[in-house]
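Q: Given only this backbone (512 positions), what sequence would you predict?
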C-alpha cells in the first residue's frame, strides 16, 4: 500500500476525533439553541447582502441547510461538527506538506482538536466555525503556493479569500499576513508579477456585495465594530489578551505555536514554509495595535502554525533521549489529558445539572468577556437556556389579551436573542412578530407603522412609562439557568404610545 494512501487514512482517522466529540454532544447533551443560533435562524428570513454584525455567507449557507433539512438544534449543529473535522484534516495536510510524518500529524491533530476555543467555536452554528475553515484552507494553500508558485494558484487563493471575507472580515488579517510572507520569503520576486495583485482584486470583487450593502446602510458594520470596542470590550487590555491565549488555546498549543515560529525563523528547512508563522505574527501585531481585542480573534491562526511546530518537534525526536521521551510520550499524554478535562467546559456533552456539578468539582467556570454577571453556568452555556421559558411566558400574556386574533400586536424585546427566540421558537404558537432595536433588527424594522397593542419585555415601570400610555404589567418571565439579565423580565402591555412608533424607532438604534 503506498505511503501516501496510508497517511491520508491516518489523517482521516485523526480528523474524526473532533467530529465524534461534537456528535456525542448533539445526541446526548442537554442544551438548547445558543443565542446567536436563534438570531442566525431569524436572519435566514431576511436574506440580504449584509447584516449589521457580520457579512452574509454564513446566513446564506444556513438558509440552504434549513430549507432542505429543517432548523432543529441537531441539524444546524451537525454542520460545525463536520467543519471541525475538515479543519483538523487541513491542519494535518499542512503538517504533511511541510515535511511532517505520522507523529507530526498525530501531534497536530490532538493539539488542534482539543484546543478549548476550537472545541467551543465548533459547538454551535455561527460565522466563526466557517472562519476557522477558511483560515486553515488559505494557510494550506499559501504554503503550497510558496513552495510551488503557479499563476493559477493565485487565482484560486483569491477566490477562496474573497469568500472567506464574505463570511468574516477578519480574513483581511490573513491576507495581510500572506502578502507579508511573500515579502520576507525568497519568493518575494512574485510580488513584481501581476498575479498576487490579481488575487487581491478577485477577493475584493467577491467581497464587494458587503461593501455596497454598507454604503447603502450608512456603514452599519463599522458603527457596530466601533461600539463593540468602546462599550462591550472596553475592559479588555493587551495583557489580558495575551494571558487569555493560555486558557483559550491551551498551554500546549502555545508551546507548539512558539516552536512553529522558531522553526520558521531559525531553521533553514522551516524558513521555506514560513507562511503560517508570518500570518500568525501579522495577525498578532494587528490585534495588539487595538488595545481591546478579544483573545479568541487570534484563534483561527493557530492550527497551521501548530502544524509547523509539530514538524519541528518531530525533527528533534532522534537528537537525544532527553528529547525523545518527553516529546514522543509525555507531551501527547498531557495534551490529551488536559483536553479531556476541558471538553465538558466548552462542549455541551453533559446534562445541565451534571455540567454544574463538573464546574464545582473542577473550578473551571470561565468569566464573561463582556463584563456580565454570571450564575451557575458560564455565559456560553447560559446563553443556551431560558428561550423556551421566555416564549411560554410571552405566549401566556398574548393569550390573555381579549380578541387577540383580531388585533395587530407587536412584541418589542431588549436584544436580538430574546426577539429571535420569540420569532423562531414562538412560530409553533403563531405568536405575533417580535422586534428589537438591536443590530440587524433595527434595520429590518416592522411590517406596520402602528399597532393595536404593544407588548414590551424587560423594562422597569419607570422606563416603560417614558414611551407607553397606561402600561399594564401582565407577567414576569423567569428562567433558572439563563443569563441573569435575561431573568425576571417584566412583560408589559400597552394600547397606546406617547409618540408615533416610527419616531421612537428612529431614535432607538442599538448597534453593539
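A: Predicted residues:
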Amino acid at each position: 500500500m503506498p505511503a501516501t494512501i496510508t497517511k491520508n487514512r491516518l489523517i482521516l482517522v485523526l480528523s474524526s476525533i473532533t467530529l465524534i466529540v461534537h456528535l456525542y454532544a448533539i445526541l446526548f447533551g442537554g442544551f438548547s439553541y445558543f443565542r446567536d443560533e436563534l438570531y442566525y435562524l431569524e436572519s435566514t428570513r431576511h436574506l440580504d447582502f449584509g447584516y449589521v454584525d457580520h457579512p452574509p455567507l454564513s446566513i446564506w449557507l444556513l438558509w440552504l441547510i434549513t430549507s432542505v433539512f429543517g432548523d432543529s438544534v441537531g441539524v444546524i449543529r451537525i454542520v460545525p461538527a463536520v467543519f471541525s473535522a475538515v479543519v483538523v484534516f487541513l491542519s494535518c495536510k499542512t503538517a504533511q506538506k511541510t515535511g511532517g510524518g505520522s507523529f507530526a500529524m498525530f501531534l497536530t491533530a490532538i493539539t488542534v482538536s482539543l484546543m478549548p476555543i476550537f472545541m467551543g467555536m465548533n459547538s454551535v452554528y455561527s460565522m466563526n466555525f466557517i472562519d476557522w475553515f477558511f483560515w486553515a484552507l488559505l494557510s494550506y494553500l499559501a504554503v503550497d503556493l510558496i513552495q510551488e508558485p503557479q499563476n493559477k494558484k493565485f487565482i484560486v487563493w483569491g477566490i477562496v479569500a474573497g469568500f472567506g471575507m464574505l463570511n468574516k472580515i477578519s480574513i483581511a488579517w490573513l491576507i495581510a499576513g500572506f502578502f507579508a510572507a511573500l515579502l520576507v520569503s525568497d519568493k518575494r520576486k512574485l510580488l513584481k508579477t501581476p498575479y498576487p495583485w490579481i488575487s487581491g482584486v478577485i477577493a475584493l470583487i467577491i467581497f464587494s456585495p458587503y461593501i455596497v450593502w454598507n454604503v447603502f446602510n450608512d456603514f452599519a458594520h463599522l458603527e457596530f465594530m466601533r461600539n463593540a470596542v468602546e462599550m462591550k470590550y472596553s475592559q479588555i487590555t493587551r495583557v489580558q489578551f495575551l494571558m487569555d491565549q493560555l486558557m483559550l488555546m491551551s498551554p500546549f498549543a502555545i508551546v507548539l505555536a512558539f516552536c512553529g515560529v522558531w522553526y520558521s525563523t531559525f531553521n533553514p528547512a522551516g524558513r521555506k514554509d514560513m507562511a503560517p508563522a508570518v500570518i500568525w505574527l501579522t495577525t498578532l501585531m494587528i490585534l495588539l495595535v487595538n488595545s481591546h481585542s478579544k483573545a479568541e480573534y487570534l484563534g483561527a491562526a493557530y492550527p497551521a502554525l501548530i502544524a509547523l511546530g509539530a514538524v519541528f518537534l518531530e525533527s528533534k525526536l532522534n537528537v537525544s533521549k532527553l528529547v525523545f521521551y518527553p516529546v514522543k510520550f509525555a507531551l501527547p499524554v498531557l495534551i490529551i489529558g488536559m483536553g479531556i478535562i476541558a471538553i465538558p467546559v466548552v462542549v455541551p456533552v453533559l446534562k445541565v445539572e451534571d455540567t454544574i456539578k463538573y464546574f464545582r468539582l473542577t473550578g473551571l467556570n470561565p468569566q464573561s468577556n463582556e463584563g456580565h454577571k454570571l450564575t451557575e453556568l458560564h455565559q456560553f452555556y447560559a446563553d443556551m437556556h431560558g428561550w423556551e421559558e421566555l416564549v411560554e411566558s410571552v405566549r401566556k400574556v398574548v393569550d390573555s389579551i381579549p380578541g387577540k386574533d383580531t388585533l395587530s400586536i407587536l412584541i418589542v424585546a431588549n436584544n436580538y436573542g430574546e426577539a429571535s427566540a420569540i420569532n423562531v421558537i414562538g412560530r409553533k404558537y403563531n405568536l405575533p412578530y417580535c422586534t428589537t432595536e438591536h443590530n440587524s433588527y433595527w434595520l429590518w424594522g416592522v411590517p406596520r407603522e402602528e399597532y393595536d397593542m404593544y407588548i414590551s419585555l424587560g423594562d422597569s415601570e419607570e422606563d416603560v412609562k417614558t414611551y407607553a400610555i397606561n402600561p399594564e404589567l401582565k407577567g414576569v418571565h423567569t428562567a433558572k439557568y439563563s443569563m441573569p439579565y435575561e431573568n425576571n423580565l417584566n412583560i408589559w402591555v400597552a394600547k397606546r404610545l406617547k409618540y408615533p412608533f416610527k419616531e421612537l424607532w428612529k431614535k432607538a438604534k442599538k448597534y453593539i
